[in-house]
Specification:
The protein is α/β, with parallel strands linked by helices and about 475 residues long. It contains 16 helices and 22 strands. The structure holds nicotinamide-adenine-dinucleotide.
Length: about 475
């Protein structure tokens, strides 16, 4: 039975594109079957959504913070009621295994919304400056929010939550590859009762609506998460009307493993973390830098852990990894594994070809390369799949130099039992976040990158501030 095309949500109504008849099939990566058909919006629909957000802005911006907090708290309640539907939507559309969808992917929805409420309650919105002045904060205006497929609801909520609570109005364009979670979330926002036009969601592709959304004169801000390639194009489009552009882009994060760490635990943790979400996390620790004296031992541990990694059906519970998101992405990863082989890196686990035991689904073999040096493409380019490289280093200075020798600077990791060293190295790594010995960051801590990993920060108060203008008024007191 053919599926009805998913509608977009514009100015408080569910609509099909006005003129475009194009559709995109979203594919379940485990079954290779169509899981949703997206009705692709065109430039006229994008314009209509932006105009709706503009028309709603003055009225919504004038509501009180307490009113908006109450609406967001209602949204949290609805999200928690429909939680299981969200878990299924995410696993279906992008292949995250059930446990990951339940414990982390879907959980990030209410998790971030609650952190956003906490942040705005604790923030100083107005404060005195000098003898008679104040500083105040106001919503920036109409926002375009563009999100990827890999942590689909996390990225949507990190943008929509702060935009709603600060009094902004918005057009969300989710990834065409992960439309089910976005559709469900839009239904939740509708039910929460935000005024017409405050939240709009249009399905489409970069080609079908990207230019209209990112160059529209009525748009004040763009918050984008995705590839560095698309981020550069978006920033260029936004420049003509001097929009604020917040970007969360790619990564190639270093994980420095010192010889004084608990090697078995540190390497095992690093491999499993790299393979989490089947390697499709922007902050995945994909470059393991290992001190020369324990390098061979670390390679042996990593190969053993990778060979033991289980792949499986995303709909089933258990500690397995899922497929990668699409055939095109599978092919790209296969190509980069071949590049590693051709460059002379030593394959110690995995390799090219579909993972054994699967006659369908985009299952990549969990792969480890040893004998890698940092100038190889396999060490510089974001693979976005379960592919780990191990690079030896001589001493602390060498490790930091290799870690920082990357166009990216999203996240970094350090493993050592010497806490003075851990703190020193964490400060010297050019990355927006650092994890020491396997710790994970709080929803209130800022998340974002240095260098070509982006600008701006999401999560907690820093994520809220991205959606605010700052006004200084003298003679106010
Ligand atoms: P992508 O750049 O292909 O697409 C992301 C979104 O942008 C999609 O909604 C897509 O339709 C849209 N888009 C593409 N081209 C556009 C254009 N020219 N104008 C407007 N919109 C456009 O990325 P992807 O493949 O969906 O996601 C994977 C990438 O996202 C990886 O590089 C990953 O590192 C990055 N990412 C970064 C973070 C972070 O927080 N730094 C988080 C998750 C993912």
């Amino acid at each position: 039975m053919s599926k009805s095309p998913l509608k977009s949500f514009i100015n408080g109504a569910w609509v099909l594109p006005a003129t475009s008849t194009a559709t995109v099939d979203a594919i379940n990566p485990a079954t290779e079957e169509v899981c949703a058909v997206v009705a692709v919006c065109g430039h006229d629909d994008a314009d209509r959504a932006v105009q709706a957000a503009r028309a709603a802005f003055d009225g919504y911006a004038a509501t009180t913070l307490e009113h908006r907090i109450a609406l967001v708290e209602k949204l949290i309640t609805i999200f928690e009621r429909r939680y299981d539907e969200m878990v299924t939507a995410i696993s279906t559309e992008m292949g995250a295994p059930y446990d990951l969808s339940y414990d982390a992917q879907a959980e990030s929805g209410p998790g971030h919304l609650k952190a956003t409420v906490k942040a705005v309650r604790e923030m100083a919105w107005d404060y005195d400056v000098g003898t008679d002045g104040i500083v105040t904060h106001e919503p920036i205006g109409v926002c375009v929010l563009i999100t990827p497929w890999n942590w689909p609801i996390n990225q949507i909520v990190c943008k929509v939550g702060p935009a709603l609570i600060t009094g902004c109005t918005m057009v969300l364009k989710p990834s065409e590859m992960a439309p089910l979670s976005a559709q469900l979330f839009a239904e939740m926002v509708e039910e929460a009762g935000f005024p017409k036009g405050v939240f709009n969601m249009i399905h489409g592709t970069g080609a079908s609506v990207g230019d209209t959304l990112t160059s529209h004169p009525e748009v004040d801000m763009i918050s984008f998460t995705g590839s560095t390639r698309a981020g550069i194009q978006i920033a260029k489009n936004a420049a003509d009307t001097v929009k604020r552009v917040a970007q969360e882009l790619g990564g190639k994060s270093a994980n420095i493993v010192f010889a004084d760490s608990d090697l078995e635990a540190a390497v095992t943790r690093g491999v499993l973390h790299c393979y989490g979400n089947t390697g499709q996390s922007c902050n995945a620790p994909t470059r393991m830098l290992v001190e020369q004296s324990v390098y061979d031992e670390a390679v042996a541990i990593a190969a053993r852990v990778a060979k033991a990694a289980q792949l499986g059906d995303p709909m089933k519970k258990g500690p397995h990894y899922g497929p990668v998101v699409s055939k095109a992405h599978y092919d790209k990863i296969q190509g980069l594994i071949q590049v590693g082989i051709d460059e002379g890196a030593q394959l110690v686990a995995g390799g090219t070809g579909r993972a054994e035991g699967f006659d369908r689904g985009y299952y990549v073999k969990p792969t480890v390369f040893a004998g890698v040096h940092n100038k190889m493409r396999i060490a510089q380019e974001e693979v976005f799949g379960p592919v780990l490289v191990l690079i030896p280093f001589i001493d602390e200075a060498d490790a930091i130099a290799i870690a920082n020798d990357s166009p990216y600077g999203l996240y970094a990791y350090v493993q050592t039992n010497d806490m003075d060293r851990a703190r020193r190295v964490a400060r010297l790594m050019r990355a927006g976040g650092v994890s020491i010995n396997g710790t994970s960051q709080d929803y209130m801590a800022p998340f974002g990158g240095y260098k070509q990993s982006g600008n701006g920060r999401e999560y907690g108060e820093f994520g809220v501030r991205d959606f605010l203008e700052i006004k200084s008024i003298s003679g106010f007191r």
